[in-house]
Amino acid sequence: MAPYHLPALLSESIAGLNLRPDGIYVDVTFGGGGHARAILEHLTTGRLIAFDQDIDAVANTPDDEHFTLLNQNFRYLRNNLRYLGIRAIDGLIADLGVSFHQFDRQERGFSFRGEAELDMRMNRLSAVKASDILNTYGEDRLADLFYRYGELTNSRKLAAAIVKARAERPVKTVSDLMSVLAGQVPPREENKFWARLFQSLRIEVNNEMQALTEMLTQALEVLKPGGRLSVITYHSLEDRLVKNFIRSGNFEGKSEKDFFGNVTVPLRAVNRKVIVPTEEEIRANSRARSARLRIAEKL
After folding, report:
1. Which positions ≥6 away from 101 have C-beta within 8 Å?
2. Where in the chain are the domains?
3. Which of 31, 49, 119, 158 could form an S-S bond across to 109 if both were Cys, CB 3.0 to 4.6 Å?
4. pLDDT digits (tens, 9 = 90+) for 93-121
5. How confident is the model over 221-247, as a mean pLDDT?
6. Which residues contact 122 (CB under 8 A, 6 or more apart)?
7. Which residues pair with 225 in a beta bridge?
8. pLDDT digits over 31-45, tens only?
9. What are 279-283's contacts with CB under 8 Å, separation 24+?
10. Which fold has domain 106-206?
11. What pLDDT is stored for residue 92 in this prediction?
12. Which of 135, 166, 154, 235 is nearest to 193 (CA)?
């Protein structure tokens, strides 16, 4: 039976939290529970609160009195913690991206390597699927999301092809989309192209970039001084946001100055250089290849 998920950079990301046995920690991307279980091994009187908006993840809940799982989007971090009576935490870990389970369950529509409806919802109670976006967005809006979230330079041609095709019949499935865009795929870059196109749709469906900025902003509010932030990213868009936030406390990367002209930042980067998987880890888990870990401490 395939694992629900194999966590990338497990030991490095857990070490980055500088765990205390009595601390209060948050795992905002519970998934298969790999990072959560590693944290729980270090707790004696502490507590771990986890978030996951995918109802499938609930089946992985460990039987541990120190653990609470919330079937919620991590963008609601602060309010959920307050509901639990928690005002401050000692650390937060985020393993961004898509779980193996979501990719490998073909009916979820996250992968281009098989036939399914274009769904891509992490929370299946959400109203909008990827197929809805493809069939309702205007041409300019489609081109913009392909360029912004997929970094596809032929985004306008892609959008035009989709709008023309859907005038005759809706673009509903993986094969529909691949057939419509077959003539737009750069030679010898098929996998890279489809990966970026599907990434752009997934980000839009799940409002991932906005959710990430909201979560990080709230994380800074609830972290205690000396508390740690450990974030694993998988593509340049989210990694840039995390990098800028750690460097400056905002997402533009612009440092703010106090009245006397001194640069003020709320976080200190623990790892000056981004942490990447070893060759050994990549051999054991090829999907970890694009993982990037950044760790910060609240000042």
Report:
1. 4, 5, 31, 32, 56
2. 10-100+208-298, 106-206
3. 119
4. 999 989 999 999 999 999 999 999 999 99
5. 97
6. 53, 54, 98, 102, 206
7. none
8. 999 999 999 999 999
9. 281/8, 281/9
10. DNA polymerase; domain 1 (1.10.150)
11. 99
12. 154
- What confidence tens digit (pLDDT) does each residue in 50-69 have? 999 999 999 999 999 999 99
Q: Which residues pair with 65 in a beta bridge?
A: none
Q: Looking at residue 1, what is its pLDDT?
A: 62
User: Please, which contacts does 260-269 make with residues 24 or more away whose CB atoms are closer than 8 Å?
Assistant: 265/299, 266/220, 266/298, 266/299, 267/220, 267/229, 267/296, 267/297, 267/298, 267/299, 268/296, 268/297, 268/298, 268/299, 269/294, 269/295, 269/296
Between the CA of residue 68 and those of 40, 48, 62, 280, what are the distances in Å?
Answer: 11, 6, 9, 33
Three-class SS state of 228 = strand
pTM over the 0.90 mark: yes
User: Hey, what amino acid is at 159?
Assistant: A
Position 50 scores a pLDDT of 98
